[in-house]
Design brief:
Shape: globular
Helix content: 40-55%
Radius of gyration: 22 Å
Number of helices: 16
Order of helices and strands: HEHEHEHHEEEEHHEHHEHEHEEHHHHH
Number of strands: 12
Structural class: alpha/beta
Length: 438
C-alpha cells in the first residue's frame, strides 16, 4: 500500500492537467454546480471514485441498494479509479484549484489520508458535525482520517492486525493458540525457538527491507514515527528501537524468514513453510487459498512490547476510508454514508461473505453473520473477534510525510540487519525525512 513514485505521478499529473484545461468550466470554488465529475450541492446522484470491482466497488453498489430502499430516486455514479490514478487526480485538481472536477465521495488509503488533508485542505469537507457516529468506530481507525481534531473520513475496510497460527504445527510442538494469546514478544520468541527446534518451521515471514512488521509493533504501543506537530521521532524513539531489536533477534534466531518478494511471502504461508502469519486481517484471504489447510488455522491477538508504556496486543496494517470532497452534495453524501457504512448492519452482513469486506463499524460485531463459525479457522468466529481487536488498536499519527518516513526506516532496518549501528542508521533515516520536509 505504497504511494506511486514521483516520476509516475508527475507524468500522470501533467497529462491530467492538460485534459482538465481542455474541458474546465473555469470554476474554482467548492460550491460549484454539479459537473461530470462531482455531484455538486443538489440532486439525487453522488459520484464516487474508488478502485477494485470485487471489493470496494462491490461494497458501494450494495450500499446504493440499501439507501435506495428509503430513497428510490437515489443513484451512484461509480467511477473505477485505481489508487495511484486517484492520488494523481486529487493532487492535480488541488494544485490547479479545479475543485469542481472532484467527485462527491472518494476512497483514500488510510496511511495517505492525513498527508492529503494537510497538503490539500481545500479538497476535503470537515464532516465532524454531520451526524455520523464516529464513536462507533475504533479510535485508532478514526485517527487516520482525523486532522486537527476534525473528522474528514468514514472508515471502511479493516486493516486490523491478526496473529494467524497453524494449529496443527502448534500441536506438534505442544502448544495451542491460547498459549499465544495476550503475551509479550519475549515469550513469543521463546516459544518460537522451541517450535522451530521441534518442527523445523520458522514462526513468521516477510519481505526483506520492508518495515511493515516494525510499524505494526510500533503502533501496538501507541507510538508513531511523528509527534503531534508532525516532526519525525525516529531518533530516540524507544518503542521503535525495541521493535527493531526484537525483529533483528527473530531474524538471527531463524524465527523470522526474510524473503525477496510479495509472491514469495504468500508462498511461505500457503505452502506451509512457516507456522503463522502476522498481518492485517486481509491476509486471511490469501491464507484461505490453501484449501488443504482448512481447519488448521486459528486467530488471536498480537504479542505486546514489554517494558514500553502504553503497549497493547493490538495493531493495524492498511485499510481505507471514504472522504467527502469540497465539491460534494454534502448533505446527501453524509446522510448516505451515515445510513450505510456508518449505520447498516445489513450492508456489512452482505459484503462480508460477498467480498470478505470486514467492518470497522463496531455494531457489526453483534451480527449473526459475524458470529458464524469459520470452518477454515477450526470453527472460530474470527470476524467477530477481529472487530473486537480493532476497537483496541491505538491511534497512529501518520502525518504528511508517512511514506518518506516508512521508506527511510525500511532502509535503516536493512542496514541494521547487515550489522550497522542502530543509532547511526536511525539518525540517517530521520535526516532523510527532515530533508523531505524542507
Amino acid at each position: 500500500m505504497r504511494f506511486f513514485r514521483t516520476g509516475v505521478a508527475a507524468a500522470g499529473a501533467a497529462a491530467l492537467l492538460l485534459s482538465i484545461a481542455a474541458c474546465s468550466t473555469g470554476s474554482t470554488n467548492s460550491t460549484a454546480p454539479a459537473t461530470a465529475s462531482g455531484g455538486g450541492p443538489s440532486g439525487n446522484t453522488l459520484t464516487v471514485w474508488c478502485w477494485d470491482p470485487s471489493f470496494n466497488i462491490y461494497a458501494m453498489k450494495e450500499a446504493e441498494k440499501i439507501y435506495q430502499v428509503d430513497h428510490p430516486d437515489f443513484k451512484l455514479n461509480i467511477v473505477e479509479t485505481p489508487w495511484d490514478d486517484l492520488q494523481v487526480k486529487l493532487t492535480t485538481l488541488a494544485q490547479s484549484k479545479e475543485y469542481g472536477q472532484l467527485p462527491d465521495i472518494m476512497l483514500i488509503q488510510n496511511n495517505a489520508f492525513q498527508k492529503n488533508v494537510i497538503n490539500y485542505p481545500e479538497v476535503f469537507t470537515d464532516i465532524t458535525k454531520s451526524g455520523i457516529k464516529f464513536d462507533e468506530f475504533p479510535a485508532g481507525v478514526n485517527g487516520y482520517s482525523t486532522v486537527g481534531g476534525a473528522h474528514y473520513g468514514v472508515p471502511f475496510d479493516s486493516g486490523t492486525a491478526i496473529n494467524a497460527l497453524r494449529t496443527d504445527v502448534l500441536t506438534q510442538a505442544g502448544y495451542t493458540v491460547k498459549d499465544f494469546t495476550d503475551i509479550t514478544w519475549d515469550k513469543y520468541i521463546t516459544m518460537g525457538e522451541d517450535i522451530l527446534a521441534k518442527t523445523g518451521k520458522p514462526m513468521l515471514s516477510g519481505q526483506a527491507g520492508s518495515s511493515d512488521q516494525i510499524l505494526m509493533m510500533l503502533q501496538s504501543a501507541g507510538a508513531s514515527l511523528f509527534d503531534k506537530d508532525g516532526k519525525p521521532t525516529i531518533v530516540g524513539n524507544v518503542a521503535l528501537e525495541k521493535s527493531i531489536t526484537l525483529y533483528k533477534e527473530m531474524v538471527q534466531k531463524g524465527i523470522y524468514l526474510e524473503v525477496n518478494s510479495w509472491d514469495e511471502y504468500i508462498a511461505t504461508l500457503v505452502n506451509g513453510t512457516v507456522a503463522s502469519a502476522l498481518n492485517g486481517v486481509w491476509i486471511s484471504g490469501s491464507i484461505q487459498t490453501a484449501k488443504d489447510q482448512s481447519g488448521k488455522w486459528g486467530v488471536t491477538d498480537l504479542p505486546a512490547l514489554s517494558g514500553i508504556a502504553g503497549a497493547t496486543n493490538y495493531s493495524a496494517n492498511g485499510g481505507s476510508s471514504w472522504a467527502v470532497s469540497s465539491n460534494a452534495n454534502v448533505a446527501l453524501a453524509t446522510d448516505f454514508l451515515a445510513k450505510t457504512f456508518a449505520g447498516s448492519t445489513k450492508l456489512y452482513d452482505t459484503i462480508l461473505p460477498g467480498a470478505g469486506a470486514i467492518a470497522n463499524w463496531t455494531p457489526a460485531s453483534k451480527s449473526t453473520v459475524y458470529a458464524e463459525p469459520q470452518p477454515f479457522f477450526g470453527g472460530q468466529p474470527i470476524y467477530a473477534d477481529v472487530i473486537k481487536f480493532g476497537a483496541k488498536v491505538p491511534a497512529n499519527n501518520t502525518g504528511a510525510y508517512y511514506y518518506e518516513a516508512r521508506d527511510a526506516v525500511s532502509a535503516a532496518i536493512t542496514q541494521i540487519i547487515a550489522g550497522k549501528d542502530m543509532t547511526s542508521a536511525l539518525a540517517e533515516a530521520q535526516a532523510a525525512v527532515e530533508f523531505a520536509q524542507n
